[in-house]
């Protein structure tokens, strides 16, 4: 298969995940809480691990976690032995995602293709960023990660959604089996009690987690005191109050929080507008947020870093759709060739260049000034 050229050396020893959080250089790859496309997940984890991400977030699914670990193992095999006096590059954390209720990250589109008119121009297929709607009709469930773009695209309104929520009794044994390094818990304002119950299930697993990431934005949830009210956005101070309530629960459970600020969730991570939304949420919230690293998400892309104001408290960034989408054409070529992308030298080279171009500015953040 042949070794892959190692990433260019950084100025100084490479950051561990915790060091990266403390220095504002943390980078996480989001494979998608509902993404079960095992072949692409294995390649995404392999390429982005080699590009230097500090964490990879995947669905809490046995087959998905196994695929992610195969990709991470491949990346570790490609690393050159550390030079004398230079430490080995730290391995990325493996994080799995859960939700405390209905959440767009944990849904699948569904429709019956037999109901589609024969002359339908199939706008649903054109707008799907995951290529999850097949040419002969129907949703490919393992590829669908719940973005929702197909829902309004259908001229006849035939597309619905199915939410996937892990049963309470399944959480602790599943985590005990998977043994991730970290867990991300998606929540929404107004869902404190469901959050507390899910957190207790996580704690009951007995897995020694490095971090408990809490993913939340300004949109009100579908349960709790806010359920009967219009789904209007909260102010940053109201969101901060919600996070402080969760901080007390997380600390009482003996866990260390990481706050994932979802600026514009499921946005496709394109253009300056989505990048500005994520940065704006950080700017509004950072003065009121509870202790713990603040990480950008939801609309982040290659423009996010340049938009940060001086003196920001960003511990790092999570890249989701933008990271997956930029490798998608190469993944399609590999699929057509019947081989994993990582085993095709030219596609692998192109993929690694794209991944490094996205990841490296954050990995280098502040190093020039420090030097």
Helix tally equals: 13
Radius of gyration: 20 Å
User: What does the average pLDDT come to?
Assistant: 88
Topology as H/E string?
HEHEHEEHHEHEHEHEHEHEHHH
Largest sheet: 8 strands, parallel, barrel
> Which regions contain 5 or more consecutive residues with pLDDT less than 50?
221-231
Q: How many E strands? A: 10
**What's the helical proportion of residues?**
25-40%
How do the strands line up in the largest sheet? 1-2-3-6-7-8-9-10
Distance between the termini: 38 Å
Give the overall shape, derived from the CA principal axes. globular
Alpha-beta classification: alpha/beta
- Quote the beta fraction: 5-15%
How is the secondary structure organized here?
Blueprint: H1 17-23, E1 26-30, H2 38-51, E2 55-59, H3 62-78, E3 93-99, E4 107-110, H4 123-127, H5 150-153, E5 160-163, H6 168-178, E6 182-186, H7 192-204, E7 211-216, H8 236-252, E8 257-262, H9 271-285, E9 294-297, H10 304-307, E10 314-319, H11 321-337, H12 345-363, H13 367-370
Parallel strand pairs: 1-2, 1-10, 2-3, 3-6, 6-7, 7-8, 8-9, 9-10
Antiparallel strand pairs: 4-5
Helix pairs in contact: 2-3, 2-12, 6-7, 7-8, 11-12
């Amino acid at each position: 298969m042949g070794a892959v050229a190692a990433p260019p050396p950084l100025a100084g020893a490479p950051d561990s995940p915790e060091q990266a959080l403390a220095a504002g250089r943390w980078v996480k790859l989001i494979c998608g809480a509902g993404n079960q496309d095992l072949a692409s997940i294995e390649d995404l984890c392999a390429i982005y691990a080699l590009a230097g991400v500090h964490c990879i977030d995947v669905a809490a699914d046995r087959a998905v976690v196994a695929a992610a670990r195969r990709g991470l193992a491949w990346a570790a095999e490609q690393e050159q032995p550390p030079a004398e006096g230079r430490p080995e590059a730290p391995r990325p954390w493996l994080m799995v995602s859960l939700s405390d209720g209905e959440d767009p990250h944990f849904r699948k589109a569904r429709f019956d293709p037999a109901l589609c008119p024969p002359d339908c121009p199939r706008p649903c297929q054109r707008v799907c960023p995951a290529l999850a709607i097949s040419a002969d009709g129907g949703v490919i469930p393992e590829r669908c990660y719940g973005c929702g773009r197909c829902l309004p695209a259908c001229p006849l309104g035939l597309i619905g959604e199915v939410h996937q929520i892990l049963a309470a009794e399944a959480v602790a044994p599943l985590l005990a089996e998977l043994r991730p390094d970290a867990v991300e818990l998606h929540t929404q304002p107004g869902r404190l009690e469901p959050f507390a119950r899910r957190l207790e299930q996580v704690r009951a697993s007995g897995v020694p987690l490095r971090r408990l990431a809490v993913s939340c934005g300004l949109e009100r949830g579908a349960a709790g005191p806010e359920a009967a009210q219009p789904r209007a956005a909260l102010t940053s101070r109201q969101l901060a109050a919600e996070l402080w309530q969760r901080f007390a629960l997380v600390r009482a459970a003996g866990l260390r929080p990481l706050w994932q600020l979802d600026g514009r969730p499921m946005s496709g991570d394109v253009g300056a507008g989505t990048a500005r939304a994520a940065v704006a949420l950080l700017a509004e919230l950072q003065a009121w947020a509870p202790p713990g690293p603040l990480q950008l998400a939801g609309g982040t892309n290659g423009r996010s870093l340049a938009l940060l104001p001086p003196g920001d408290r960003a511990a790092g960034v999570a890249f989701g759709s933008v990271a997956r989408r930029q490798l998608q054409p190469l993944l399609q070529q590999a699929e057509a060739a019947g081989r994993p992308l990582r085993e095709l030298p030219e596609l692998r080279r192109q993929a690694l260049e794209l991944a490094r171009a996205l990841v490296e500015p954050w990995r280098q953040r502040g190093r020039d000034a420090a030097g």
